[in-house]
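# step 3/5: fold
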Amino acid sequence: MEKDHKAQGKLETRQLNTNQPSSHSSLQLNAKHQQLIHQHLPIGIVESSLEGKYLDVNEEFCRMLGHEREDLLQRGIKEVTHEEDYHVDIKLHGQLIAGEISHYKIEKRFVRKDGQIIWAELTRCLISDDSSNPLYVVGMIRDITERYFAEEALLRARTNAERTADRITRLQKITAALTGGIATTQQVAEMILEQGTQATRAAAGIVVEVLENGQGIRTVASLGYSPAPIHTDAVPLSAGTPLSDCILTKQAIWLGSQQEVVIQYPDLAMQPGSPGYEATAALPLIVGDHVPGALAFSFSEARSFDQEEREFLLAIAQHCAQALERVRSEDALRESEERFRAILNQATAGIVRKDAAGMLLFVNDTFCSMVGYSSSELVLEGKTCWDLTHPEDLEENQRLFAQMIREGIPFQMERRLLRRDGSVVWSNLSVSPIRDASGKPVSAVGVEVDITDRKQAEESLRQLNLE
């Protein structure tokens, strides 16, 4: 009976709003037409009581949640909403009932019958009678799970690409320090620890060197460790610690958890004043056929030390070894750059390096695929990033880039790239400055994430809403 009154109320309200007379047959036809639309729209539609219980649901909403209609009509907002999102939804629901807001739209998680979580865009509005008394609430639900996880994947890809670009920048700073006339080995070691801990989010780091007699080691620089485990004086070089072992074996020691530390170095773990970090990487500093020292980073959380991170830490160790020996090998630097170039070419986002005028100095394979040019066509033929930028985005891109070179402020924007065949690719661009030894921005690293599919989906949705 309540449902019949509600349906009749809708029809009477529609009559009043249109000011057009309707016969009983036309009302029935309109009601049937409305029911068909309600049930077959490709979005979930629900009617809820003022208390949040479901009064009616359409087929799409049942399909989204995997429930039968009769089952959902025994439930309400709370029973199908993720507990972390319920308090937000029900608070807005209360404001809607109280007349504080006319409608609301949120993204929230629903819990399906099988326990799986889906993300949805929810819009609710209040239905009132002719005297403005609230009757019930109508909600429209659009499943955005695929879009949500696609955006999460894009974010991870961009984060990984930005992390790689940041590491390259820090490696370049280390390289610049080695060629910039820093006075002492200690100063170079301190700078390497600073850049290395920031790039890897290590909690502490230490550099030691082997004494000339080959029988002992001493600390050159440390960062983040408490004074207790750090020996400023020489100590014997003997097996039993990660630093000593990596020097003696010329192999990196990767300890991903405290459990691994206890298994491999039980005496060290039990020593008073042990720093107690969860994971440690100890890296030999190899120059030619001998090991003049070692470098170690410690971490507060367990980690797997994936291949990319191992490559980066080994590259830092290589540069640190060069600083200790006061030699710089062009072949070693070229090999290090090629290693990181290979990492960049495996990245899922486009990565470019450009000078202060926008001239392309390096492009990875992903970026070449995005724009349809080869690396040699872009770099050797002297193309600029402006040659590939859509004219409508050019002025804003150049303004932000000039500000970054002038003030060192990174920036991010969505822009269109022009492919070789004339088509357009939408990109989420993040640009960071590369500074010289004095801190002045001299070039930049750009990370380009292809968002064409997302843009096309948004345009399709916009056109659908217009229709």
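# step 4/5: annotate
The chain has a mean pLDDT of 80.
# step 5/5: archive (pending)
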